[in-house]
Amino acid sequence: MLLIRCPYCEEERPELEFRNAGEAHIARSANITGESDDDFEKFFFIRSNPKGIIYERWRHMHGCARFFNAVRDTVTDKFIMTYKAGEPKPAKVPGVAK
Amino acid sequence: MKKYSVFAIAREAMRGHKGWEEQWSSPEPKKEYDVIIVGAGGHGLATAYYLATVHGITNVAVLEKGWLGGGNTGRNTTIIRSNYLYDESAGIYDHALKLWDGLSQELNYNVMYSARGVMMLAHNVHDIQVLKRHVHANRLNGIDNEWLTPEQAKEFCPPLNISKQARYPVVGAALQRRGGTARHDAVAWGYARGASARGVHIIQNCEVTGVKRAANGAVTGVETTRGFIGAKKVGVVAAGHSSVIMNMAGVRMPLESYPLQALVSEPVKPVVPCVVMSNTVHAYISQSDKGELVIGAGTDQYVSYSQTGGLHILQHTLDAICEMFPIFTRMKMLRSWGGIVDVTPDRSPILAKTPVPGLYVNCGWGTGGFKATPGSGHVFAHTIARDDPHPINAPFTIERFRTGRLIDEAAAAAVAH
Asked: How far apart are CA B166 and CA B157, in angstroms?
């Protein structure tokens, strides 16, 4: 079980309190009806599914119930950092060479 | 390839078993092949086997980063069934089921396919509606599936608890009698032996690190840890790593990879005569011929390539197993393991040509690909050999996620995903 730090509660809590909510930083088009089929497919179905660093959303369901974002390594499952929803995608991730 | 038979056993017994030959050879990779298959699991090896036997294409290499059958082929719960809801799924899974019957004879290798029946339990009104819908849809597609009362379910599987006081009471069940199990390792070994005997090169410990494309976009070969290997046709059958390989060719996939866990108990005398699955409580169980209870759990909720999963996932499944089979509450579990499964948004596989000429993909089998191994290999070999899908896998395109013509087994599959 993962130990996840909620950036709102500022506490590490067990995974059971959280729901994973998929890849982060996928913006829904402001004009969704005007989207082409290609763009809609990218938005709705295509995922980066990286072997390595993933940016993903979590929700602290059984805590503050708020969504936040996390950076995690999908090979080790170790969290590198978590940050609040709405904050920009971190340009530099601590401990990761880019 | 020397044929296995009772006479071969007698002959070898006479001379101290010194005459058994290697089941498959391990040649050095050539510079170029007609077809390269990435991934020597059941599906990849079956593809190579049918390329050789059905289409006469034997200049084939199967590249495997680890060892043959060491991924999900050796990590699954070996359940075989074809009672899927939609016509397209019924087509492909029943194609596989028909090939399972007779596969041991075809491969001259005992894959231990045992049609012991797959029983899916209903615990509430919604389950009854869904499973009955399956029963009717299956029968319209010519696939056997029948409805059982709780008493009939108990008769078919005596250790099942059908008490009305149970936490998850059994209110009915759907039974596919042709469903069952097979010996997963033997499936990989049998296909490998058959393919190797026909000239296919199986190259283990050879990880694909890049996909080379010509100026016109067509595939020219793959970069590997053992150097560049050329081929005009490359089939990607890499399960949880399919999207990683496809990314090397510049194709982004509608896939996410999750750990899926299974576990086995200590071996005991025969007690579970069939496969029992439950969607609502998410557990499935059968008994191997060695006597171990083979139990399948769910996926973790997050993308991962770790080949391990959370302990709470296993605990949840064992809670359910103990409720359904109180007889097992004191069983000891011996081993658990995780495999990485590639899941599509509609929970149906992708077996198709790709936007890249010469690149083919067979992936997205998610949590239940083992059952399809023979059928998947058979139609994928056709797709590669003819550069055109077989009618059975024609609906399983990548483009369906753009056109919206999904094969939405997400809600229709036997277990919740």
From this structure: 16
| Residue B266: how many other CB atoms lie within 10 Å | 12
CB of B301 within 8 Å of a chain A CB? The answer is: yes
pTM exceeding 0.90 = yes
**CATH superfamily placement of domain A3-84:** Folate-binding superfamily (3.30.2270.10)
Distance CA B170, CA B172 (A): 6
Closest partner residue to B256 among A40, A42, A49, by Cβ? Answer: A49
CATH number at B118-177+257-343: 3.30.9.10
Assess A56–B contact: CB distance below 8 Å, yes or no: yes
Is B402 in contact with A38 (Cβ distance < 8 A)?
yes
Contact by Cβ (8 Å): A55, A80: no
Assigned CATH topology for domain B26-82+84-109+184-254+346-403? FAD/NAD(P)-binding domain (3.50.50)
Q: Report mean pLDDT in 10-residue bins for chain B, 417 residues.
A: 93 94 95 98 98 98 96 95 95 97 96 97 94 96 97 97 92 97 97 98 98 97 98 97 97 97 96 94 91 95 95 94 93 95 96 97 96 98 98 98 92 51
Kindly determine whether residue B255 and residue A49, on different chains, have CB atoms separated by under 8 Å.
Answer: yes
Provide the shortest C-alpha distance from residue B150 to chain A (in Å): 34
